[in-house]
Design goal:
Blueprint (H helix, E strand, L loop, with lengths): L1 E4 L4 E4 L1 H6 L1 E6 L6 H4 L1 E8 L2 E9 L10 H13 L4 E5 L15 H11 L3 H16 L7 H6 L14 H4 L7 E5 L2 H11 L9 E2 L1
Parallel strand pairs: 3-6, 6-7
Antiparallel strand pairs: 1-2, 1-8, 3-4, 4-5
Length: 202
């Protein structure tokens, strides 16, 4: 059995499934030249360890380029075309629960594009809803508070990212929300090799 562990839990696979499953990590950016700033690392589990096979900028994907809209479209097509895959993405997948009217996350994700057709609409409207509900324009989710993430989901540095969160992966993939900076801070506090949040374990 191989487990991929986050601070909230783990995704377990037997060794046969792990050997067939691609592991992908996306270092995301919503910047104007996103194609140069987004990087995609891809690998597989071998002998209980993660073996990275490729690491490329999003601009190198088929049909991609440096410009944000072109790059994000190519990234969605690339991830949707993968087989059984575990995809880690470093942006928030949701708003605080008190700001969501849908009964489930799946419903929220399915309706996201209708509610927020553009990134600017998402920032503007989510801030208005947040102020009305909490008095704060950028409230954090409970997981953000617990993990000490630096920004709320609709912060100026992040608000373009959730637009792509619900259309990136195929139905055969598992999606993990990651916060590398939180992971690095934990390791720095605990010292090298002493963190209990190991990325892979047997």
């Amino acid at each position: 059995m191989v487990e991929i562990v986050s601070h909230e839990g783990c995704l377990s696979m037997n060794r046969a499934d792990a050997a067939r499953t691609r592991i992908v990590g996306v270092d995301f950016s919503g910047g104007v030249r996103a194609g140069a700033k987004i990087w995609i690392a891809s690998g597989r589990i071998k002998d209980g360890r993660l073996l990275i096979e490729t690491c490329v900028p999003a601009a190198d994907l088929r049909g991609s380029g440096l410009e944000r809209a072109t790059c994000l479209a190519a990234l969605r097509m690339h991830l949707a075309g993968l087989g059984p895959t575990v995809v880690g993405l470093d942006f928030p997948f949701s708003l605080p629960s008190g700001l969501i009217s849908e009964p489930s996350w799946n419903d929220f994700a399915a309706n996201f594009a209708a509610h927020y057709p553009t990134a600017d609409a998402f920032q503007r409207e989510s801030r208005a809803v947040a102020i009305a509900a909490t008095g704060q324009p950028e409230p954090k989710r409970r997981t953000d508070v617990d993990a000490r993430t630096p920004f709320a989901v609709n912060n100026l540095r992040l608000y373009r990212r959730p637009i792509t969160a619900f259309a990136t992966c195929s139905r055969r993939s598992s999606q993990l929300e990651l916060c590398p900076s939180c992971r690095c801070r934990r390791r720095n506090r605990s010292g090298p090799g002493s963190s209990k949040f190991a990325p892979l374990r047997r």
